[in-house]
Each structure stands twice: as structure tokens, then as C-alpha cells.
Specification:
The complex is a heterodimer of chains A (329) and B (266).
Chain A lengths: L5 E4 L2 E2 L2 E2 L1 H17 L3 E7 L6 H6 L4 E6 L8 H15 L3 E5 L2 H13 L4 E5 L1 E5 L2 E8 L4 E7 L4 E5 L15 E4 L11 E8 L13 E5 L9 H11 L2 E4 L1 H5 L20 E5 L5 H7 L4 E6 L12 E4 L2 H17 L1
Parallel strand pairs in A: 1-4, 1-6, 4-5, 5-12, 6-11, 7-11, 14-15, 14-16, 16-17, 17-18
Antiparallel strand pairs in A: 2-3, 8-9, 9-10
Helix pairs in contact in A: 3-4, 5-8
Chain B lengths: L2 E4 L2 E3 L9 E3 L4 E3 L6 E3 L1 H17 L3 E6 L5 H10 L3 E5 L9 H14 L5 E5 L10 H9 L3 E11 L2 E8 L2 E7 L3 E5 L11 H9 L3 E3 L12 H4 L2 E7 L8 E2 L6 H13 L4
Parallel strand pairs in B: 1-6, 1-8, 6-7, 7-13, 8-12, 9-12
Antiparallel strand pairs in B: 2-5, 3-4, 9-10, 10-11
Helix pairs in contact in B: 2-5, 3-4
The chains are: A alpha/beta (329), B alpha/beta (266).
The structure holds flavin-adenine dinucleotide (FAD) and adenosine monophosphate (AMP).
Flavin-adenine dinucleotide sits at the interface of chains A and B.
Chain lengths: 329, 266
């Protein structure tokens, strides 16, 4: 018999538990509040058990830990059978993953393997009887769709920063070590190495409070230093549009948007960015958006709180200079 | 090396947001009249990746697509770019399917088509923005599926795959056959020559339907779908921008800085 529990697949990175894990818990907690059931978190990896407590303190009623050296480094091929085994034992009503690079790979595979379906990159969840209505943007965000999955479990990957994180909860959940059968058999994928691509002169994009982002309107890689100077004056991280990444001006890790990083800083300054929906998808959660664009009809102005219609070549020097003066005071 | 590239024909992703409409009752997106249909951008990147591998290592490249007769244009473009063979899955029974039924039909035709070393797809289609079908195919065929992939090369019998991860890249060694979802950074699609376009215009596209696959009507299209579309809508957006103006415009930067400072934003 399937339970009415919601299972959350926690994610860890180099700095421990990823923020998305708490967003998944937040979304799950809200939903079990409306629909009943409990929140079960799965933490699979190598030397991850130290993070179980944080999940138990922030919304998971139960944390299932699979700590095994074969789960490091992450590869879909090794993680999938482990998750499938746990899911079959636990029979959750729904499973939440992050729509991160890991979740993008694991989620659909999991759904197909379990003979059910997934809604990817979901931004809203609502209950409808025993089903979860999943809202997902289509066509880059121009259209919204509400889906229902008839089968079980209902799987969904949640867009980062679209759901509020849980705070500390009143009661602490239980932590259980799981024994799963991990045959050390042949795998067809092997990790050879990891290449870090730093964000150049700026701070780390993830969790940055202030981001300065540049688009194709900068005109060429030779002008990119203006973006860097503005970022430096503000102590900001640097982001870019896909157009800039594809042109090779900056590494892919700087891309903000639907197929890049999703950010939600306090302040986002967009220079020479048209505001295509696929870019907006990655930054519309910013508290205050500033746009500098020479086209008064650019879509970015619909999202901006303050805007300058003008050529960045004329606007930026004064902006950078005055910011430096004001910040020095 | 024999390569399959899945290509989907999609509405032009650059259509300005204001042109989008939906028929809520019919749960359908209404595209602006005269809008062009194009090869999904990431699929064009996947095709480019496949063509480069073929040029280096030989073999045959087959493009496959599920869609209606209009898709022949996109398949002909793929042939003009250098694909050797094109297959179109066109049958009314496939209509109104979902990621699952699409993957099922494509996996079936891939099986039927014989042996292959690599399946290349776009990391996602620009209409569904789902990123599911290629991973579904991988699962149905029981082969590794890796996304999002920046770059793929072949040495000896193994594939070297660069996968995007947060803040950088993973370098993986994969034993073929495998399915990869290609991203846009590395494989700028080539433009076919006019001559190749003309030749491709005359070439044959193999068209297959339900009867050619080992599937029944209940498994595909609307009846096989596992996801149900409950509602389709557009979220309107009201602008609330305050424009900072100055003459000459060079002063606007200074004014903006002061405004941000007044608002304690910097
Ligand atoms: C499936 C899919 C996924 C995508 N994912 C992403 C994503 O994750 N992130 C992303 O960013 N994009 C993404 N895109 C691409 C997106 O659709 C746009 O093409 C892209 O965001 C445009 O980048 P841009 O604003 O830099 O360039 P453009 O759209 O070319 O805009 C340049 C802007 O600069 C302005 N400009 C020009 N000169 C000046 C000047 N001198 N001073 C001031 N302004 C000037 C112009 O008025 C224009 O508005 C995706 C597309 C698809 C189809
Ligand atoms: N109808 C289709 N025909 C051929 N390939 C498709 C089709 N739908 C999806 N694909 C492939 O699967 C990828 C992911 O699609 P999606 O899951 O819809 O985002 C696309 O980039 C295509 O390569």
C-alpha cells in the first residue's frame, strides 16, 4: 500500500547540504500540512551522515541515510538503483528533487524506471484530492501549465529559489541508516576529473547578495571589463546571459537563466540584456532589478524597478565612479 | 561510429512574449500567424556534435523525429547539414502524447534501426522545457544518459564527456552506447550550403507509423500519456519601472547611483 508521505531527495555539494534541500523540505512541509502524511528525506552519498541532523532539525520527520563509498563521486548510474530500492520500500505518494544539474539527470530517469511520470522545473505546488497539481513554465516562461500525474509516486523537480526554505522545526525527526544492496559491479561511466571554473573577478554567484550581469549588448569580450569594474565597485558577483556564454566571453558557470544558474539576490543589475523569458527565469526572484538598455521596449524593463534607457558606454562610467564615491563615505 | 540524433521541430523560441496567446478552453498554445518552425536549438547543437564526430571517426548519422508532415523541413535541413538518413514518426495515433510516449516511440524506432554507438539529443526542447525525452530513451534502452553535456570526444573505444555541474565541469569516461543531452556552448551549428539544401530538398525521408513499430495504440499518444495537462494559462506582468532620465545621458549613471544610495540598495 502506498503511503501518503512525501520523499525529498537531499543534495549535497562541496559545502555540505545544498540550499535546495531545505527548499524541498519547505515545499514538502507545506504540502503535508494540507494533505497529511510525513516528510521523509533521503540522503545518499559518501561521508554524508554528518548532514542528516540538519535535515532532521529542519523539517524531515525521518531521514534515511545511505552512506557508501561507491556513491562517491555522484553518477546517475550508481545513485539510481539505491534510490529505486528505497522508494520501493517506502512507497511515498510523491517525490521531490531539485531541478539542479543532478536532479535534471536523476529525475526523469527515476520516473521512467518506476513506470510513473515527472514534472520538471516546477514553480508551484497545490493539492487536489490525493494528487499534487504541479505548475511548470513552458516556452521559456511565456506560458504556464498545470500538470497532474495519474500514477504513483508523483515525481516533481522544483526550480531552485522558487520555494521558501524551512526554518528550524519544533521537533527533530529520526535518523535511520539504510542498508541497501550496492553491488560493486561494472559501471559504464567513470569520473576522470572535475574542472572548477571560477567566476573570474567577481564573487561566487551562488548566494550572492548583489549581482552585476552583462548581455550581448556589451558588444564584445573587449568590453566585458566594464561589467567587472561595476561588480568590483559594488563587491558583487558577475553573471551573464547565454548569448555571452555561447559567444565565449565568459565560462558557462556564469550563465544565469533557465538553463544556467537560478539566482535571487537583493540587487541585480542587468547591462545590455534584453530580458528574454529564458533569462528572466533565472533572476526574476531578485528583490530589486536595475536595467540599463538602449531599447526602451526591451522586456527587461517590465521586471526592473529602476531603469536607464541609454547606451551603457555613456551610463556606466558615471555609475561606477559615483558608486565608488558613495561607498567610500 | 553510428550516431542517432533526435531532433524536434519547435516554434521559434525568439517570439516576443507579447505574441503568446493560449486557448484556455482547448488547453492549447496559439502561436502568432506567420511564425516560423525551426529545429530545436539544442538539437541543432547535438547534430553539430554528431557531424563533427562522424567527420573524425566515420560511420553513419541518422536523424529521427516524431511530429507531423511539417517536420520534413527540419529533417531536410538536417540532411543538408550532413546527416545520412532521416526518419519521421508520423501517425495520428501519436498525437497529444507526453514525454513518456515520445520517448517510447523514439526508443522503439532506435531499436528497430539496428546497432548504434551514440544517441545525441538537445538537453531540452524549447517548447516543453522538460529535459526528459532523451533520458527516457536512455532508460528504456538501458544505457547511460548524461546531461547537460558541453562536449563529447572519442578515443579508442571510450567517449570523453564533459558534463556541466554547479561551478564547473565533470569529465567522464563513458562506454558506448550512451545517450547525451547536448548544451549550446561548444557546438555552434553549421549553415548548410545552398547546394546541399537543394539536394536535401529532393532526398527521401523515411516515414514510419504505429504499424511499423512493435507498439499498440493504447501505449502511445493521448492514451499512453502519464501526465495530464489540467490548465494552460499566461501570467500577465505589469511594469513598475521608474526610469532615470538625464540630458546628456552620461549623467544618468550618476543619478542612478544616487538613487540606489538613497534607497539603501548599495
Ligand atoms: C531553451 C532555451 C534556453 C535558454 N536558456 C537561457 C539561459 O539560461 N540564460 C539566458 O540568458 N538565455 C537563455 N536563452 C537565450 C535567450 O532566449 C536569449 O537569446 C538571451 O538571453 C539573449 O541574451 P542577451 O540579452 O544578452 O542578448 P540580446 O537579446 O541580443 O539583447 C541584447 C540587448 O542589449 C541592448 N543593447 C545593445 N547595445 C547596447 C548599448 N550600447 N547599450 C545598452 N544596451 C544595448 C539591446 O537593446 C538588447 O536589448 C535560452 C534560450 C532557449 C531557446
Ligand atoms: N517529438 C520529438 N521528436 C524527436 N526528438 C524529440 C522529440 N521530443 C523531444 N525530443 C528530443 O528530446 C530532447 C528533450 O526533449 P524534452 O524532454 O521535451 O525537453 C529534445 O531536445 C529532442 O532532442
Amino acid at each position: 500500500m502506498p503511503t501518503d508521505n512525501i520523499m525529498v531527495i537531499a543534495e549535497t555539494g562541496s559545502e555540505g547540504l545544498s540550499e535546495i534541500s531545505f527548499e524541498l523540505l519547505g515545499a514538502a512541509q507545506t504540502l503535508v500540512g494540507q494533505m497529511g502524511g510525513r516528510v521523509v528525506a533521503v540522503l545518499a552519498g559518501c561521508r554524508v551522515c554528518e548532514h542528516a541532523g540538519a535535515l532532521a532539525e529542519r523539517g524531515a520527520n525521518r531521514v534515511l541515510v545511505v552512506d557508501h563509498e561507491l556513491l562517491e563521486p555522484y553518477r546517475a548510474e550508481t545513485h539510481l538503483p539505491v534510490l529505486v530500492e528505497i522508494i520501493k520500500r517506502e512507497e511515498p505518494a510523491a517525490i521531490f528533487l531539485g531541478h539542479t544539474f543532478t536532479g535534471q539527470e536523476l529525475g526523469p530517469r527515476l520516473a521512467f524506471r518506476l513506470g510513473t511520470a515527472i514534472t520538471t522545473d516546477c514553480i508551484r505546488l497545490e493539492p487536489a484530492g490525493d494528487r499534487v497539481v504541479m505548475t511548470k513554465p513552458l516556452h521559456g516562461g511565456n506560458v504556464m501549465a498545470e500538470y497532474i500525474i495519474a500514477g504513483s509516486p508523483q515525481i516533481v523537480s522544483l526550480r531552485p529559489h522558487a520555494f521558501a526554505q524551512t526554518g528550524p522545526s519544533r521537533s527533530t525527526g529520526e535518523v535511520l541508516d539504510m542498508e541497501v544492496n550496492l553491488e560493486g559491479g561494472q559501471t559504464k561511466t567513470r569520473l576522470v576529473g572535475t574542472i572548477r571554473e571560477d567566476s573570474g573577478k567577481g564573487k561566487q554567484l551562488k548566494n550572492a547578495e548583489v549581482i552585476v550581469s552583462g548581455g550581448r549588448g556589451l558588444g564584445g569580450a573587449e568590453n566585458w571589463h566594464y561589467v567587472e569594474e561595476l561588480a568590483e565597485a559594488l563587491g558583487a558577483a558577475i553573471g551573464a546571459t547565454r548569448a555571452v556564454v555561447d559567444a565565449g566571453w565568459v565560462p558557462a558557470s556564469l550563465q544565469i537563466g533557465l538553463t544556467g544558474t537560478i539566482v535571487s539576490p537583493e540587487l541585480y543589475i542587468a547591462v545590455g540584456i534584453s530580458g528574454a523569458p529564458q533569462h528572466i527565469a533565472g533572476m526574476s526572484g531578485a528583490r530589486t532589478i536595475i536595467a540599463i538598455n538602449c531599447d526602451p521596449d526591451a522586456n527587461i524593463f517590465k521586471y526592473a524597478r529602476y531603469g536607464v534607457v541609454g547606451d551603457w558606454k555613456e551610463v556606466l562610467p558615471g555609475l561606477i565612479q559615483r558608486i565608488k564615491e558613495l561607498r567610500e563615505k | 561510429m553510428d550516431i542517432i540524433v533526435t531532433v524536434k521541430q519547435v516554434s521559434d523560441p525568439e517570439i516576443p512574449p507579447a505574441f503568446f496567446k493560449v486557448d484556455e478552453a482547448a488547453r492549447q498554445v496559439l502561436l502568432p500567424p506567420g511564425m516560423s518552425w525551426v529545429m530545436n536549438g539544442y538539437d541543432a547543437n547535438a547534430l553539430e556534435a554528431g557531424l563533427r564526430l562522424k567527420e573524425l571517426h566515420g560511420g553513419k548519422l541518422t536523424v529521427i523525429s516524431l511530429g507531423d508532415y511539417k517536420v520534413r523541413d527540419t529533417l531536410k535541413r538536417a540532411l543538408a547539414m550532413g546527416a545520412d538518413q532521416a526518419i519521421l514518426l508520423d501517425d495520428p495515433a501519436f498525437a497529444d502524447g507526453d514525454s513518456y510516449t515520445t520517448a517510447l516511440v523514439l526508443a522503439e524506432v532506435i531499436k528497430k534501426n539496428g546497432s548504434f554507438d551514440l544517441i545525441l539529443s538537445g538537453r531540452q526542447a524549447s517548447d516543453t522545457d522538460a529535459g526528459q525525452v532523451h533520458l527516457g530513451i536512455a532508460e528504456l534502452l538501458g544505457i547511460p544518459g548524461i546531461v547537460p553535456v558541453l562536449k563529447v570526444e572519442k578515443t579508442g573505444d571510450t567517449l570523453q564527456v564533459e558534463r556541466l555541474v554547479e561551478g564547473g565541469l565533470q569529465v567522464l569516461e563513458v562506454q558506448p552506447p550512451a545517450a547525451l543531452g547536448i548544451s549550446s556552448e561548444f557546438y555552434e551549428p553549421r549553415n548548410p550550403s545552398v547546394r546541399n539544401l537543394v539536394t536535401a530538398g529532393r532526398s527521401q525521408i523515411q516515414i514510419l507509423g504505429l504499424a511499423d513499430l512493435g507498439l499498440t495504440a493504447s501505449q502511445v499518444g493521448k492514451s499512453g500519456a502519464r501526465c495530464q495537462l489540467r490548465r494552460l494559462f499566461i501570467e500577465a506582468r505589469e511594469s513598475c519601472v521608474e526610469l532615470i532620465e538625464s540630458d546628456p545621458s552620461a549623467g544618468a549613471g550618476i543619478k542612478l547611483a544616487e538613487r540606489l544610495h538613497d534607497e539603501k540598495l548599495i
